[in-house]
């Protein structure tokens, strides 16, 4: 079991969930730059083929499919079709609701390894707000969508110490 699964399982056990903004960026502790080592996509080469009418079909409309469609458009393929079985795009990234319409983010709520991550570039280019998060600044909410009562600090400290020992 890894630390993230342990922490998430423990929060579920006590009936709490960490709520963070959609697509909030995890910090890497450096100078605030985006973390990770995934290179950004290169622009199309100068000798790239001109726009084409060839039809390209992408199955699914999750993050990877949307990124692929965007990249194909950039590279001159303008007849791109996305086929999605659901009535929405986003794949595992979506907002549901509980109780009296309290929004709950299901799926991707963090950008992991944000330096050079293509998702970070999409978020930035669309002006989507992010928040650097870590275990120390998580906000916990109760079943009514209100900030949860503080957990016993000694109990929480023991829990987090165990979490940090996990691989």
Sum this structure up briefly.
Helices cover 26% and strands 21% of the residues. The strands form four sheets. A two-stranded antiparallel sheet has the order 1-8.
Kindly describe this structure:
The chain has helices spanning 3-13, 63-74, 118-125, 153-165; strands at 17-19, 24-25, 52-59, 77-83, 94-98, 102-106, 110-111, 139-141. It is of the alpha/beta class. It has one domain (17-150). The strands form four sheets. A two-stranded antiparallel sheet has the order 1-8.
Q: Gyration radius, to the nearest Å?
A: 20 Å
Shape: elongated
- N-to-C series of helices and strands: HEEEHEEEEHEH
Mean pLDDT: 72
Query: What is the number of helical segments per DSSP (H or I, 4+ residues)?
Result: 4
* Number of separate structural domains: 1
The secondary structure category is alpha/beta
Cα end-to-end separation: 7 Å
What is the percentage of strand-forming residues?
Answer: 15-25%
Helix share, percent? 25-40%
The count of β-strands is 8
Side-by-side strand order of the widest sheet: 1-8
Main sheet overview: 2 strands, antiparallel
User: Stretches where pLDDT falls below 50 for ≥5 residues?
Assistant: 10-39
């Amino acid at each position: 079991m890894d630390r993230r699964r342990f922490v998430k399982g423990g929060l579920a056990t006590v009936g709490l969930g960490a709520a963070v903004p959609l697509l909030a960026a995890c910090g890497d502790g450096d100078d605030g730059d985006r973390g990770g080592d995934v290179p950004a996509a290169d622009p199309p080469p100068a000798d790239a083929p001109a726009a084409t009418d060839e039809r390209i079909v992408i199955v699914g409309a999750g993050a990877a499919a949307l990124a692929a469609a965007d990249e194909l458009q950039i590279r001159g393929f303008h007849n791109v079709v996305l086929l999605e079985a659901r009535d929405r795009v986003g794949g595992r990234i979506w907002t549901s609701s509980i109780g009296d319409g309290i929004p709950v983010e299901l799926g991707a709520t963090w950008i992991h390894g944000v330096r050079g991550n293509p998702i970070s570039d999409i978020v930035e280019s669309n002006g989507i707000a992010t928040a650097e998060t870590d275990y120390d600044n998580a906000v916990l909410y109760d079943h009514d969508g209100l900030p949860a009562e503080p957990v016993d600090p000694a109990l929480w400290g023991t829990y987090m110490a165990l979490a940090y020992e996990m691989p």
